[in-house]
Amino acid sequence: MDKELLKETMFLLEAHELKSAREQYLEYLNSARLDRSETVDDDEQAQAEIASSLSEALDDAAFDHFAKIKKLATIDFGPKTKVEEGALVKMGGRYFVIAVSTGKFACGGNDVIGISTQAPIYAEMQGKRAGETFMFNGRDLMIEAIS
After folding, report:
1. CA nearest 101: which of 92, 112, 91?
2. DSSP state, 16?
3. Least packed by Cβ within 10 Å: which of 28, 36, 67, 94?
4. DSSP-assigned letter for residue 73
5. 86 Cβ partners below 8 Å, 6+ apart?
6. Tens digits of per-residue pLDDT, 49-84?
């Protein structure tokens, strides 16, 4: 798999998620503002408070995506021979990229999942090479390939 394409795909996905989180944040923020030139009833006040709380949560999501984009910019996606940041790891016929956490996404005709170096599974697989096994959640897992 082309790791430059992988990195670019991850950047684009996070940029899209950041844009979406920002738009949702602004939408909820706008609905949290009350027109103080008119009388505000209890229902409007309650809805504005809920919208304000949701906008704070969405602001956190936007910050998380921004932090992921910043992190991706620092990762060396060059060839790897062991499990480390920037490695593409194949286990159980599935691909995992050691970078930032993501949901499943398609890249180069394969499904890939991003794993952060903070993930518990990474702590178990770190430093392993192709053909080696490790235990996670009571299961033995074998690293089929690393690039």
Report:
1. 112
2. H
3. 36
4. T
5. 3, 75, 76, 77, 78, 80, 98, 99
6. 666 566 566 567 778 888 999 999 999 999 999 999
